[in-house]
């Protein structure tokens, strides 16, 4: 019971922090923190599944989050007129040929006896396959990218409701996780870390450079929304009247209303995923996972297929990150591949999981909210601190520099929090039972 | 057909840049591999250690420039380098004392140390951005070229020019000197030998009276020196930006793993393997092929296998191939 009170208290403190933000700054800021906090909590759940349950060290979260974002563009944007006819099929054919080349090379490796002939055959298949792939793929890309490059220049999406992109984002991330897991999971833990770090960079590089896919660094803006537009609400006399009943003007009321709707949608997803993660944790499957984590050799001796179970949980965790990524892009209403940075999307999520308590789902959720709150609020706090500290100084280059630098306090603070928690409370705020 | 011009073009755009980049990666990978061999974890903060050391070097460079000190045709940064190394070593020893030592005493699992190094990475990144800001800084001064393309053309009468930049020359010379010093130290001196012994077998080393704390301190100082040199050379060659240094982590780790984690020779080989693959695969071969092939057979396209933005993908694929076919790397590294 005591533990229950403590945990509820911790969540209450975070809620209080957000409410204080609402009162002190503005309710819009507070709701923004809440919404991104919900998404961060989902990402943390995914990482907790991999690290907390199974001890898998994945530092490629950014890649899976970005894939979720890509899914929301591919699902929800209207299709580009004529793009498929011009080059879309060529691109798909080219990609299939590329995949076929790799499959052929792998089969050659597996089927032929170990000899020089095998190496030569593999090299020949890869070289010929690569040039064939480029020959089919490149014209298709050029054709698609030349269609009205100022506003589209990509194959567009399917024009389906954006909410559908959330599960699809999960599936896309799961698919990529399967490929990575198949190759990298047999390796040692820090090799897996480097491999996932690399794959995340590659996913971002692909999204930045393959303009036909989602316009690359030209960004996709104006994604369809699952909630009404603020402007429409402000024009709605009934809404204005109801807002007036609360003593709010139409503009503020509409922005708050929209954010609350998002928050409700996100909360539903979080609750479902949290419920599922709790069920999984307390099931025989969850106990097996922890047994594998704690002693792989013993688990293997009991007949558990460690590599398969690792693959399974790696895919599940990555899928959750993909869902969170799709949700985030939906909230932003735009996909900007240039903004994906490993410090923000990979390592910050790790801080959330470690601080919250790895191995405990509620801990991960708490960490998600708390660290996101700090990530947002450290900047104004740092500025305030710096202006207080420098208030005695005369104006000059040093003071300007210090004030400018205060914005970078957040990375420092996050590192400090991570190190302090690891040192003095290594099991996190809500430890694993 | 004009093989001489083809070779000059190839040297100018592929071989020389790849040698410079390879030396920088090799120095970085040596640092990663030493930490892995002796402290037994993958140091995620290495890119930021490089950034920190380079930042101190830049600050001293600015100060020297302000005082009017210079090395003539050589960049002032060379003069500032020892101060950068000292500053970086001090900072790194401080983090070891404040952070890593605790986990070493506990004999924590390597993966915990990796997470700890993530925390250090955040802090170092924050400190660097706090002091010098997130922007690009170009701190190279002195003569820009050893041989400029035009001088070379005038000298040889060839159509193609071969430019050797001062930073390239300095990179190669410094890398050779540093590597020679390091190998001399590891193989000939008492401390170096005790480091290798500690890396090979910790228990046996302790049994024979090697002081582990001394080994650790020396390792950190060497790593700080290597990181600062690598970072400064990279900064002279390109420019300094905190985020770029963080991103160097991937090719550096790829180099160290390809060569075999824990093996210094491997780190150097890996650095050059990665650098040459990155440059050759992302280079547009048209010009070389036009010279090298018989007249009229030259290609129409650029003959670029992958666009330069995919250079990470190259190091990554090499890494995967090596891991799948030879998990301990080209030179037998250790597997903890």
Element order, helices and strands of chain B? Answer: HHHHEHEHHHHHHHHH
- Per DSSP, what share of the residues of chain B sits in E-state strands of 2 or more residues? under 5%
The total domain count of chain B is 1
- DSSP strand tally of chain A: 2
N-to-C span of chain A = 13 Å
Examine the coordinates and then state which fold CATH places here, giving the name of the CATH topology of the largest domain in chain A.
ABC transporter involved in vitamin B12 uptake, BtuC
Q: What general outline of chain A do the C-alpha atoms trace?
A: globular
Continuous helix count of chain B: 14
Calculate the mean pLDDT score of chain A and round it. Answer: 90
Strand order of the largest sheet of chain B: 1-2
Number of strands of chain B: 2
Can you tell me about this structure?
The complex is a heterodimer of chains A (433) and B (336). Helices cover 76% and strands 1% of the residues of chain A. Chain A has 433 residues and is mainly alpha-helical. Chain A is globular, with a radius of gyration of 24 Å. Chain A starts with a helix and ends in a 9-residue tail after the last helix. The mean pLDDT of chain A is 90. Chain B has a single domain (3-325), classed as ABC transporter involved in vitamin B12 uptake, BtuC, CATH 1.10.3470. Chain B has helices spanning 3-38, 46-67, 77-106, 110-132, 149-156, 166-188, 190-200, 202-207, 212-237, 242-247, 249-259, 264-282, 286-292, 311-325; strands at residues 145-147, 164-165. Chain B is globular and about 70 Å long. At the A-B interface, helix 7, helix 15 and helix 18 of A face helix 4, helix 10, helix 11 and helix 14 of B.
């Amino acid at each position: 019971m005591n533990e229950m009170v403590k945990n509820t208290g911790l969540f209450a403190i975070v809620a209080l922090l957000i409410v204080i933000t609402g009162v002190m700054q503005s309710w819009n800021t507070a709701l923004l923190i809440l919404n991104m906090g919900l998404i961060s909590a989902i990402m943390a759940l995914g990482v907790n599944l991999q690290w907390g349950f199974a001890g898998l060290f994945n530092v490629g979260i950014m890649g899976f989050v970005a894939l979720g974002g890509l899914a929301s563009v591919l699902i929800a944007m209207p299709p580009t007129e004529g793009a498929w006819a011009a080059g879309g099929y060529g691109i798909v054919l080219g990609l299939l040929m590329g995949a076929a080349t790799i499959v052929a090379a792998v089969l050659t490796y597996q089927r032929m006896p170990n000899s020089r002939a095998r190496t030569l055959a593999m090299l020949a298949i890869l070289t010929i396959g690569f040039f064939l792939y480029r020959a089919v793929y490149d014209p298709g890309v050029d054709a698609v990218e030349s269609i009205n490059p100022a506003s589209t220049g990509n194959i567009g999406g399917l024009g389906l409701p954006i909410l559908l992109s959330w599960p699809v984002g999960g599936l896309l991330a799961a698919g990529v996780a399967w490929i990575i897991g198949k190759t990298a999971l047999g390796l040692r833990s820090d090799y897996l870390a480097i491999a996932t770090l690399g794959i995340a960079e590659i996913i971002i590089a692909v999204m930045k450079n393959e303009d036909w896919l989602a316009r690359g660094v030209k960004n996709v803006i104006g994604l369809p929304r699952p909630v009404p537009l603020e402007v429409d609400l402000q024009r709605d006399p009934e809404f204005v009247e109801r807002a007036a009943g609360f003593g709010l003007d139409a503009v503020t009321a509409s922005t708050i209303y929209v954010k609350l709707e998002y928050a409700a949608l996100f909360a539903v997803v979080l609750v479902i995923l949290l419920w599922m993660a709790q069920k999984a944790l307390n099931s025989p499957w969850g106990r097996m996972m922890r047994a594998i984590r704690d002693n792989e050799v013993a688990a293997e001796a009991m007949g558990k297929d460690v590599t398969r179970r690792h693959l399974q949980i790696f895919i599940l965790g990555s899928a959750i990150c993909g869902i969170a990524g799709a949700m985030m892009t939906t909230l932003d209403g735009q996909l900007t591949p240039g903004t994906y940075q490993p410090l923000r999307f990979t390592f910050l999520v790790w801080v959330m999981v470690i601080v919250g308590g790895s191995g405990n789902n509620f801990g991960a959720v708490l960490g998600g909210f708390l660290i996101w709150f700090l990530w947002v609020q450290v900047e104004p706090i740092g500025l305030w601190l710096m202006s207080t500290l420098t208030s005695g100084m005369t104006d000059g280059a040093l003071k300007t520099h210090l004030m400018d630098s205060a914005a970078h306090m957040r990375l420092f603070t996050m590192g400090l929090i991570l190190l302090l928690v690891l040192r003095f409370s290594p099991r996190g705020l809500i430890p694993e039972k | 057909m004009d093989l001489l011009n083809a070779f000059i073009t190839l040297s100018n755009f592929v071989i020389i840049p790849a040698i410079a980049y390879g030396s920088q990666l090799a120095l970085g990978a040596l640092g990663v591999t030493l930490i892995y061999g002796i402290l037994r974890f993958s140091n995620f903060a290495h890119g930021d250690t490089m950034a920190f050391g380079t930042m101190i070097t830049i600050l001293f460079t600015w100060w020297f420039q302000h005082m009017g000190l210079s090395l003539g045709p050589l960049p002032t940064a060379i003069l500032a380098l020892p101060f950068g190394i000292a500053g970086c070593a001090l900072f790194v020893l401080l983090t070891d004392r404040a952070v890593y030592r605790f986990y070493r005493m506990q004999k924590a699992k390597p993966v915990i140390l990796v997470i700890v190094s993530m925390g250090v990475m955040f802090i170092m990144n924050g400190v660097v951005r706090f002091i010098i800001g997130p922007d690009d800084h170009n701190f190279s001064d002195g003569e820009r070229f050893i041989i400029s393309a035009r001088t070379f053309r005038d000298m040889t009468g060839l159509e193609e020019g071969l430019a050797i930049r001062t930073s390239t020359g300095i990179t190669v010379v410094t890398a050779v000197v540093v590597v020679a010093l390091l190998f001399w130290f590891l193989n000939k001196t008492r401390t170096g030998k005790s480091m290798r012994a500690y890396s090979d077998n910790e228990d046996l080393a302790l049994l024979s009276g090697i002081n582990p704390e001394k080994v650790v301190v020396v390792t950190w100082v060497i790593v700080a020196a290597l990181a600062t040199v690598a970072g400064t050379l990279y900064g002279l060659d390109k420019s300094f930006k905190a985020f770029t240094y963080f991103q160097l982590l991937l090719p550096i780790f790829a180099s160290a793993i390809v060569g075999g984690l824990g093996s210094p020779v491997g780190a150097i080989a890996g650095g050059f393997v990665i650098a040459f693959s990155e440059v050759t695969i992302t280079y547009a071969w048209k010009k070389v092929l036009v010279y090298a092939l018989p007249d009229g057979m030259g290609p129409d396209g650029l003959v670029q296998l992958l666009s330069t933005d995919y250079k990470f993908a190259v190091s990554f694929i090499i890494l995967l191939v090596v891991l799948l076919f030879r998990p301990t790397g080209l030179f037998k590294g250790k597997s903890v």
